[in-house]
Amino acid sequence: MALLVLFTFPAYGQVEVYQEPLTLPTYGVREPEIMPNWRIHSYPYTMMDRLTNERGTRTYNALYVENEYVKALVLPELGGRLHGAQDKTNGYQFLYDQKVIKPGLVGMTGAWVSGGVEWNFPVGHRPSGFRDTDWTITENQDGSKTIWVGEIERLKRMRWSVGTTVHPGRNWVETKIRLENCTPFMQSFQYWATSAVRATHNYQAVIPGEIATGHAMHEFFHWPVDKGIDISYWKNSPGSSSYFSVESESDFFGGYSPEENAGFVHVADHHIVRGKKLWTWGTAPAGRLWEKILTDGDLPYFEPQAGAYSENQPSLFWIMPGETKIFSHFWFPVKDIGVFDFANLEGSVNLELSEGKALFGWSPTGANQDVKIVVLYDDKEIFNAETDADPANPFLGEAAGSGMTELYKLRMTVLSSVGDTLLAFKHTRPKHPQLPEGAATPPDPGEVNSQDLLYIYGDRFYRYNNSEKAKLYFRKALKKDPGDIRSNTSMGEMALRNGNYDSALEYFNRSVERDDTFFKAWYYKGLTQIYIGDLKDAEKCLNRASYSQEWYAIAHFELAQLTALQNRLNRALEHINSSIGANGFNSQAHAVKALILVRLGRYEEALKVIRANQLTDPLDFFSKQLQVTAAAASGVTDSALEALEDELLDLTRADNDNHIELSIRFARCGNYLDAIHVLELLTSESEKVTVSPLVLYYQAYYHSLIGQSDEALTLLKKASGTDPKYCFPYRPETFPVLEWALSENPDDAQAHNFLGFLMKKSNRLTEAVVHWERSVILDPLNVVAQRNLGQVYKIQGDLHKAQHAYQAAIIADHLQVRR
Asked: pTM of the entire structure?
């Protein structure tokens, strides 16, 4: 991977970032199951749940970033996890670095490994956590260096990226987070960084606060001592347990190992990174069994977790279409000072009172000269000294005084050489609050009479990915008031997601008829018209939606794409500038602006936008392809163009889904030749990668849209005969592609099969059955379609048909093995 930017460095020790092979003992996972798993948090991913006890070795692409104090390891091939972090001053691994890759069945699709930090978005133990991710490396103007990993996840088609960064002269490992809703729909999400530390017997979690709770807040505990037991110690939780802080007002948490005389600290803005969680398998035999499952003789682990926007699990929030959430975590070691009481980005402090003597320590995050340590008791100075301290040499001190008996009268301050306060800490006297009542489960719709609560409960289930349960509340609300704007709009949105466009329009029309200032309904009505192909009405509705600040940016973004599709480029540029003006964090909007500028022949302006976008969002392969497009249009040499395309393929990993997503982005703006080109890049790599039949279907469809019917039909024939193994369609944009394919060849068994997948995912079971039944008539050896029919027949209550379909699947499987 080429480094993106080079800068000079200040006088601190230089940060190094590099890539090298890392060979680790690895337990095998058998080839994924060919059948889809239809669970909401699994489809369209393959299941990786066929684990083995076969230990071998595997060489990973290891990415390291380090300075004189810390060293961090990132493994893109294992979900992009921060695999470990080491305090170089004493060798302590303050984030658990697994020495063996030994998956257990924990992840949403099976295989999962512990240790390091796992990035979970939009769900916990995300289904791609044991799969390859996109990655690149950047060097930053301040001398820091960053390893970026991320992906467009497939559950909701949002994009996340994490930039693991080491700074000059600091022992922080900063992880910069970008969560981007690059879809045109509101999406629900949760975000948790699941870290792990080695749990020695006396390891103690440090989580400020006096109340903890479990999952879903059904039960509350006193923290850290509950019923006479200090549950902050690993050794004191015999069973598997989750402890979440409640309404934390602190930016820090972490833990400390007395045996290692070291620990770790996590610091982040508690208004954003609200969640502080501790998980343990427990010390009982059932919990200790997981050491054997996940390691080969290594220590158990404590799992401190940091959650953004939510403080509990599950706790999901909406993210607007086009919205990008950006924040940072900081992870760093602490040593020698004992269990710390307070931390910020300048370090950690411990302040104790023992037998009339104050004991105190400061473990700094950087080198400090001539700092002043001041300790007061009852507002009277008992210690004042200047010192030098750095991450390798923490400060330790003590002070005696008469009558010192109360810990809460001690105060410690660390002042810089120029008098700035670096840290200041005083123990807070406990308030011993009463434990709250556990959260109640929402009542069934029949028990709810409030129109407002029917919507609130429905929206909650919708947000928690249970649309069928949500509909029960919305339908009752609409029975009570058929014009209810919120429930109509939510029902319309669900219909739109599932491709039921006529039904969606009915719901949206009811909303705007009741209140023509309900701009959410106007936005989704405009989106529906785009899918239907009524661009004139779409433009009207989206412009109406832009009257609202809430929908202004995304409405103009969609209008920019719509008018670019119509080749109204100057108008498109106006719309995209309006969108960027209201939401400058949307990297897609900047990429669309560059696309429009290329179409206008303003190549240098386009390249300027592209370069700026790549600095803020280094994994944006839309911008990377636009760099290729702009370079080609401006007449660069063939060798320079080929080098840029190689960089693009490095960034996308020549991944089928990445290239389909990229082609869709170009097609939405009418750039069909670019859409074709990014798919052709894959087919040109067919000796190295397995090309999905969907890539060929999309290529054929785009050729048909520009009148190249011969090329379209050739590709269509090739697509229908390409191995569909592990190809599980899930995008709404695939509907028109496959419907066009069937209009050209009604006997395309593969297209019928894939439309069956889309219908089943959209809960349109009757239509799914029609397509799968046709598919197996045309191709009786389609094992997956036969099995899918069996499942749907069973759901529909026809057990006889289900049995027949399952038997047909078994026969087809045997016949395929013989072939």
From this structure: 0.96
